[in-house]
Design a protein that fits this description.
Blueprint lengths: L2 H6 L31 H37 L3 H6 L3 H22 L10 H4 L7 H18 L4 H18 L12 E5 L5 H8 L3 E6 L2 H12 L7 E3 L12 H4 L3 E3 L13 E5 L2 H5 L8 E7 L8 H11 E11 L18 H10 L2 E11 L13 E10 L1
Parallel strand pairs: 1-2, 1-6, 2-5, 6-7
Antiparallel strand pairs: 3-4, 7-9, 8-9
Helix pairs in contact: 2-4, 2-6, 6-9
The structure holds S-adenosylmethionine.
Length: 391
Amino acid sequence: MSLENLRNQYKGSYESIQDDSDVYYLKNGIFTNNPDEVKEDDRIQEEKHIRDVLNTFLHYEIYAQNMNNKKKSDYRRLPEKHKLLFPDVLKKLNTVDELIKVNYNFIKLMIQDYVPYDSDPNKTFQGRSVKSLEIDKVKSTLKQFVRDWSDEGKLEREQTYTPIINALLDFYKDVPEENRCELNILVPGAGLGRLAYDITKLGFSTQGNEFSFYMLLGSNFILNCMSEPRQFRIYPWIHSFSNTEKVKHQIAPVDIPDVLPGNIPVNTNFSMVAGDFLEVYGAPGYKEYWDGIVTCFFMDTAKNILEYIELISKILKPNAVWINLGPLLYHFEDLFTDSSFELSLEEFLEAVKKFGFTIKETKRIETTYSCNQNSMLKYKYNCSFFVAVKN
Ligand SMILES: C[S@@+](CC[C@H](N)C(=O)[O-])C[C@H]1O[C@@H](n2cnc3c(N)ncnc32)[C@H](O)[C@@H]1O
């Protein structure tokens, strides 16, 4: 499907794995339900943005291989006596080249509905350059697949998604399993969709919300296009040679998905919605709509965390539950281009109460985030976890 077709398509390209009648799309962009509602400026902006993202994906191979080529030439320039000590380094770098190709094949399949599989990255977007910061987002997307959809990500999911899910099950323990589909749960900042999917599998009607096209293209691929478990093999760790204990750890494959998404309980709705959380759910139709909201590593993505808390309070039904887990690594804190407002954890919890919640439980949970468990460097977050009920 071309970008042109994508724009003209009635329902956008991003559909739930079950019935998509419940799926809403970003109001003013290409992921819209109703083309009449598209504002021209927003459409142009959004189309430019998705082209930039696709362009970045397409440049992954060239970029990663250029980095690898530099390592080869740096090695060749070493004194002969040093090269003789480690004569197999070029062989290792050639292996990395091959693995970059494997990753790139996966990426091309992921985006093939939007750009032809055999696109020449230099021609498709006519010489647009790509910065290393943008390529980092492709690498992060590969790592996010590990977190959400691989055996290797199980530990992180157990540390983060499991406590959230257990708290949700506990909060609604009096609702029989067959009636859970009547409870609507929202997962803002859903990433590649695993938490939303796992909640759906338990019978709750669940909606994930995400605004990054890197994530949206990835979750669309994994949720809608897989035919068997472990269908794809990727190599997410090959881009960094630092903090590697053994070479085999760096070139280790990761098979995805660990489970084949599908077979969600009858009558349960599952959807993913593209768009900014504040924009999508600020719409009047969502006032007191949700029975539960779960936020995982999301609250610190706000420019103003109070806006997030205020909206969560507004769109939850009275006596509904908000479960949060995450650090406070404020994404906009160091950016001069955007405003940012940061609260300490103590102040954050105070704000939660001020916006009409009773906090039932708080604890701290240590976890990593899309981390190579074999690395010599692991950033550990001492996350805040809480269960709050709207008064
Ligand atoms: C740190 S990631 C967490 C992803 C997932 N919840 C997890 O735990 O793996 C934060 C996610 O929120 C998304 N995000 C950030 N701001 C958003 C917004 N305003 N609306 C929707 N999604 C947003 C980002 O694109 C990113 O995928």
